[in-house]
Amino acid sequence: MGNANSSNKISAQDRAILDMKIQRDKLHQYQKRVKTITDRETEIARECLRQGNKSKALLALRRKKYQESLLAKTDQQLAQLETLTSDVEFALVQKDVVFGLQQGTAVLKEIHKEMGGLDKVEMILGESQEAQAYQEEINEMLGGKMSNQDEDEVEDELDAMQREVSGVRLPNAPSGSLAETNEAALPDVPQETPAQRAKRRREERAREQAAEPLAA
C-alpha cells in the first residue's frame, strides 16, 4: 500500500506542467475574446479618424496594442517554461519555473481585467464626463506599460489608417523607367528615416508628458 501511495504522489515537475496547461487553456480562451475587442477597437479608431479626432483614434490603437502585447508576452513565457519543465535537470531550474508561473498568473489576471466587454470599449467614443474620465484613466494606465517600440508601431498603424480613411492611395506600378518614376512621384522635401521618425515621436511624447502637470 505504501509503495502504491508513493508511486502516485504528484511531483513538483508534474505540478508545474499541470499549472502550465491550465495557464495555456486560459490564454487560448482570452485570445478568442480579446480578438473580438481588438477588432472593435480598430473600427473605433477608424470612426474617430473620420470624425477628425486623432487623439481618440490613437487611444483606441494604443489600448489594442497593449492587449495584444499582453497575450504575446504570456504566450512566449509559457513556451519558455515548457522548455524548462521538460529539461532533465528540472530540479536545477525549479525556482525559475515557479517564479515564471507566478508571473504568468499575474499577467493572466491583467488580461482578465481587459475582458470588461465591448461596453467599455465604446466609452472611447463617448463625450460624457464618465467617458472622458475613463479615457484619461486608460491614458494614464498605458503611459507606464508600453515600450517606445510599441508606441512607434501604434503611430505607424495610425498613420496608415489615416491615409486609408482619407482616401490616399499608393501610386500605381511604374510604367516607365525607375528613375523617371521616382522623379515624378517624389516631392522635393526631405524624407524622414525610421530612426528619425522614432526619435521625433519620443521627443513629442516627452514634451506631452512634461506638459501634463502644467495642464492639470
UniProtKB/TrEMBL annotation:
Compartments where found: Endosome membrane
Acidic residues biased stretches: 149-159
Claim: Transport is one of the keywords in the record: yes
Region (Disordered): 147-216
Biased composition (Basic and acidic residues): 201-210
GO biological process: late endosome to vacuole transport via multivesicular body sorting pathway; protein transport; vesicle budding from membrane
Pfam families according to UniProt: Snf7
Protein name: Charged multivesicular body protein 6
Source species of the chain: Friedmanniomyces simplex
